[in-house]
């Protein structure tokens, strides 16, 4: 009589079966989606990192010497966007461009731009694609008497007579205005009347609204002075400002040929670098290394999954089968998220994914160990499950939160490779909570609601562990 009352007070079998069917259908859709990505039958595909796909990695160091420290982060982001836009024009498949800081404790941390070009193994070609982007600057010519005197000595070759103050004056011969190529929205080739009477190629620039205002303020406040135009540190020309220019346009001249003017216009249209950069290192990654990483990662994942499956079946019996199905659903959800976010798969990321499989099963161990205690104490299976999920939740929650915090620290302070591992670990931990508390519960509720004292085959299969 007690058994019947307990069964009637539980969730009806139809609802429990419906929950399990929904999970099975979801697993089926995820399986079809993942299989399609692997076989290439739809547009989604796994995004491979440089260490897997092979290619070229370029590391540039940005010169932030003359940049306001408060502006460095913003300019580095602009630099990344400009380089990405330029590389996309060359049709490189899925380039990865990101910024990083070399040292968080140094007085002058190195700000780096990392460019990863999958499939590009010609370093000279890769460097040309990046290095062709010009750095355009507009500077006022400093006509202070001490500067002119120092320049006169320098022009006459009297280097030994230059005082430290005069050397400083030479360094400050041009005054930064803050107007650079980052404000250029368009650049086209034009022609102007040269000094010889013939038309010569020039580059007509159009500034954005911020650049237009800055250019108007500069030309309005310095009428009669010279505004020098520098390209990659070399002065092209230094025309005199006759009046304020408020139209948001400027002309760059510098004895260009038609071909060089076109190259400059195209480069500026792609985006001028907001700050100078220099190439620090290059590296070529062989695609065969990536193939080995994938094969070894898959083998490691299968071995791990197989060992966990064996352990669960031998130790937890019927409950172990439930855990295996929930773990399979976990793997499918993770692969689907990797495809749709999308997550760039690296060797470190694959390691994080394999490790997260162990984390995913840890919650099931806590749940079914608690279930064993309740079931052996005489509780019906469904009552034991309800208690085990309820009492195991605090430990599952606290353990996973600790893992997420640790992974978040790795992601925040680590390099790109460490970040790939940390991100997969965070993602896997979050999905494991859903897998344990929802998917495992949905299948576990399909187990028959019996007691250990009934001494049936099913009760023996539910009497887990030692």
TrEMBL record:
Where this protein primarily resides, as one coarse class? membrane
Q: Name one GO molecular function term.
A: protein-transporting ATPase activity
Q: Does the keyword Cell membrane apply?
A: yes
A GO biological-process term: protein transport by the Sec complex
Stated role: Part of the Sec protein translocase complex. Interacts with the SecYEG preprotein conducting channel. SecDF uses the proton motive force (PMF) to complete protein translocation after the ATP-dependent function of SecA.
| Record family assignment | Belongs to the SecD/SecF family. SecD subfamily.
Could you identify this protein by its name?
Answer: Protein translocase subunit SecD
Per the UniProt record, the lineage of the source organism begins with: Bacteria, Candidatus Kaiseribacteriota
